[in-house]
Amino acid sequence: MADGHTITIEQGTGAVRVVHDGQVLAQSSRPLLLRETGCPVRYYIPAADVRTDLLTPSGTHTYCPFKGTASYWSLPDAPDLVWAYPDPKPGVAEIKDHLCFYEVETD
User: Fold this and answer.
1) Per-residue pLDDT tens over the stretch 70-94
2) E-strand spans in the chain?
3) What pTM, to 2 d.p., does this model score?
4) Cβ neighbours for 34, distance < 8 A, ≥ 6 positions apart
5) 42: closest CA among 16, 69, 71?
6) In what order do the strands lie in the sheet with 56-64?
């Protein structure tokens, strides 16, 4: 990556879960760990392990020059709580079909 910016992705081995207001939104034993220069570790959870039925697509989109364009989903009381890269750049292709949350509990 340019100017010392790096992104690494590895297969996680521990369990992770996301709970919001007492409701489990995601639970997985196969998250991807994405480490990016200047950012906290992010856990990308397979869509099959996320309660997508509870989430509403948001109109928000952001662009990252390294990962591509992100789409967001919300809960009624938590706008843009979740994001994903539906068509990620080739260098981070593994995160396709995975969702990311701001706060994740790890075991």
Assistant:
1) 999 999 999 999 999 999 999 999 9
2) 7-11, 16-20, 23-28, 32-36, 42-46, 56-64, 68-75, 78-84, 98-101, 105-106
3) 0.93
4) 7, 8, 9, 41, 42, 43, 44, 92, 95, 100
5) 16
6) 7-11, 32-36, 42-46, 98-101, 78-84, 68-75, 56-64
